[in-house]
Amino acid sequence: MELPIELDASSAVPLHRQLYEGLRGAIISAQVAPGTRLPSTRALAEALGVSRSTIISSFAQLLSEGYLQATTGSGTFVSDELPEGALPRAHHAAESDQASIRLSTYGASLADAGPLESPRRSGLIDFRDGRPAFDAFPHTEWRRALAAAARDDGSSLDYSPDPAGYLPLREAIAAYLGRARGITCTALDVTIVNGSQQAIDLVARVLIEPGDVVALEEPGYLGAQRTFAAHGADLRAIAVDRDGIRVDWLERYAAGARLVYVTPSHQFPLGVVLGSNRRRSLLAWAERNDAIVVEDDYDSAYRYEGRPIPALFGIDRSGRVVYVGTFSKTMFPALRIGYVVAPPALREVVQNAKAFADRQSPILEQRALAAFITDGSFERHLRRMRVLYRARRAALLAALQRYIGDSVEVSGESAGMHLVVRLPLVDTKGFIERARRAGVALMSTAPHHLREPVPGEFIFGFAELDEATMEEAIARLGRILPECR
């Protein structure tokens, strides 16, 4: 890469200082993005026409101040986070002269929200989220479906007359949900959205007024927490145990709740399954309290033990469950197609909210996905992935036992694409930092807590990583673990 730095050999400022200030300024102004891998000191010395010692001196200063991070065997990278006290990345010289703009309540809630996830960085074995196995995706079948979708009569170039989405895709989703999730619905009940995040936002728009009580699992999905908070909700954290959300806590800590958001088939992040008795209790609570249950079924397609768990929507008899699904986990994250199955009382308003949000989701991908589901490719893909992920899950569990030992506690291993590992008496931040230095990216469950996080609790996404890579990563973690207790 070419760095936006010029050195002046005739200047009284030493070259190593010029390089330090130039690179530091490029990082602060975001000309060089977080996570960027820098050229080697030898390559940079040749490119700038200076000695290698000049580069090493400048890098050492930037490393000590936290602007750079070095990983043995991988290289030197721009830090994901600027050191405390650094100027903001979007700094403008005349910022003090800019007008003060009053934000809405919604806008003000987003001003300091930060990203939902930190950027991934090359050179690290990344356990941080449950991304699917891109190497095993049926690329040929998907390209064929896209090509066929593009060979239409030109109708895909116009707006869809129905903001709820492409009708054949809605029909295919309704049929699939009937087979796989025990949900009886028709295409009329299904609204296509741009991923589950938009689904949650639309539900919040049509149901939540500022000050309304919204109950959330603790810990729970950060995207849901921030969305409901941005709409002014009064968030109430409801504990999760081995049987899922504590429904009895709803009565005690979420009196008058307008809505409860749950992930019952594979709780995020802990991975537990909401027990059958609690499912019935949750629906009864919602009916008694005139509340809505938002069921986020983000990765229920991957279950490795026991019989499939029916969706809450399928056993709801009072029309109080809004079902949210996504293809980001079963297909690939860049396919921003999700869906909402709403009860009759909410169906039209959700579809109108979608229309006012962005008119419609991209039609080409909808057409391709409809064909991919209808011809059986989607469910064949799911069957292959279940076999693959079951093997990768087993490899991760075996590696944890081999290199970490009996001190490790695991939850959420019976389903999904990640599990949670608890390492008692471990310094959470210290372990994450030492892991990064060892070439392994980890994240704790801490960001998903509304209250005090649990120390030493980490999310391990296993779907994307092959067995040998996971073995190596866990071996590295086993070597650094004694330093973090």
Can you describe this structure in just a few lines?
By secondary structure, the protein is of the alpha/beta class. 40% of the residues lie in helices and 14% in strands.
Descriptive overview:
With 485 residues, the chain is α/β, with parallel strands linked by helices. The protein has 3 domains: 81 residues, Arc Repressor Mutant, subunit A, CATH 1.10.10.10; 112 residues, Aspartate Aminotransferase, domain 1 (Alpha-Beta Complex); 241 residues, 3-Layer(aba) Sandwich (Aspartate Aminotransferase, domain 2), CATH 3.40.640.10. The protein is 40% helix and 14% strand. The protein is built from 16 helices and 16 strands. The protein has an 8-stranded mixed sheet with strand order 4-11-10-9-8-5-6-7, with helices on both faces. Helix 11 links the parallel strand 9 and strand 10. 40% of the residues are buried.
- Unreliable stretches: 89-93
- CATH homology-level superfamily of the largest domain: Type I PLP-dependent aspartate aminotransferase-like (Major domain)
For the record, what CATH class of the largest domain applies?
Alpha Beta
**How would a textbook summarize the main sheet?**
8 strands, mixed
Terminal CA distance reads 40 Å
Gyration radius over CA: 25 Å
Helix/strand/pairing category? alpha/beta
CATH architecture of the largest domain: 3-Layer(aba) Sandwich
Indicate the mean pLDDT.
Answer: 88
Instruction: Identify the overall geometry.
Output: globular
Given the structure, what is the number of helices? 16
